C-alpha cells in the first residue's frame, strides 16, 4: 500500500470519483474549481488506485475542509477509508491547521464519528443527498 499527498488532481483520482460518486451514487456535479487548488490523498494497492480524498482551507480560520473521500467498491471493508483520513489529517496538521471539517453523507456519519468527528448544525441536501457538517479538533 502506498499513500501519496499530491498538489494536483490526477486521472486516477478523477476515475475513482467518477466510479464512486457519479456511477454508483448518481451525483452529477463532481468536479469544481476547488480541484484546481486543493491537495489530494491517493491510496494505491499493488499499483492500483483504491481510494482518495481532497483537502483545502475552509472559510473558518485555522480549519481545513476534507472532501470527496471515496474508496472503490473492490477495496471496501479493509479500513482504507480510515487510512486515507489519517493521511489527510496528518498533512493538514503539518500545514498548520488546528481543525478539519467535512460535509458527510448522513449514511457515513458513524464512520466519521468513529474517527473523532462531531456533527454541527442541521442536515442539508447536496444534490438531493442528505449531508451534515462535521468537525474535529486536531
Automatic annotation (TrEMBL):
Keywords for the protein's UniProt record, in alphabetical order: Acyltransferase, Transferase
InterPro entries membership: Acyl_CoA_acyltransferase, Bact_Acetyltransf, GNAT_dom
Molecular function per GO: acyltransferase activity, transferring groups other than amino-acyl groups
Location of the N-acetyltransferase domain: 1-138
Pfam family for this entry, one: Acetyltransf_10
Protein name, entry field: N-acetyltransferase
Organism per entry: Veillonella tobetsuensis
Lineage of producing organism: Bacteria, Bacillati, Bacillota, Negativicutes, Veillonellales
Amino acid at each position: 500500500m502506498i499513500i501519496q499527498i499530491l498538489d494536483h488532481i490526477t486521472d486516477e483520482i478523477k476515475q475513482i470519483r467518477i466510479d464512486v460518486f457519479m456511477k454508483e451514487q448518481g451525483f452529477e456535479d463532481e468536479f469544481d474549481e476547488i480541484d484546481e487548488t486543493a491537495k489530494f490523498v491517493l491510496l494505491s494497492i499493488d499499483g492500483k488506485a483504491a481510494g482518495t480524498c481532497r483537502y483545502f482551507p475552509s472559510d473558518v480560520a485555522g480549519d481545513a475542509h476534507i472532501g470527496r473521500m471515496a474508496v472503490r467498491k473492490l477495496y471496501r471493508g479493509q479500513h482504507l477509508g480510515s487510512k486515507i483520513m489519517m493521511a489527510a489529517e496528518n498533512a493538514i496538521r503539518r500545514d498548520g491547521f488546528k481543525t478539519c471539517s467535512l460535509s458527510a453523507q448522513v449514511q457515513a456519519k458513524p464512520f466519521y464519528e468513529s474517527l473523532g468527528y462531531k456533527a454541527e448544525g442541521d442536515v442539508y441536501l447536496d444534490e438531493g443527498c442528505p449531508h451534515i457538517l462535521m468537525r474535529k479538533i486536531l
